[in-house]
Amino acid sequence: MTAGTTTIPLQSMIRQVPGNIVSDMDGEKVMLNVEHGKYFNLGATGGRIWDLIGDETTLEALVGRLTEEYAIERSMCEEHVHAFLQQLLQQKLITVAAAGTPSERA
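Request: output the structure for the sequence above.
Response:
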């Protein structure tokens, strides 16, 4: 799946792209993308999402996990997580693949 405005289906497999330097700073996750020389502040919730996609997972499983951990309605969680993942995809920080196929770099 390529970066852009394409909707990420709930069953898509999502995974971090390797090669980023990530650190916790005062409860927030910060990251340096070495390949592109860009710095990102993922924040606390974004950092949690980043941790959860360290191992390949589906958007559906990710949203399910976050709704268990945070007091948020599933539909709102799905909307916010999808928007965040779209930003990560546009920055080439994650891979997204159809369920059952290996992830390819966006």
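The two ends are 6 Å apart (CA to CA).
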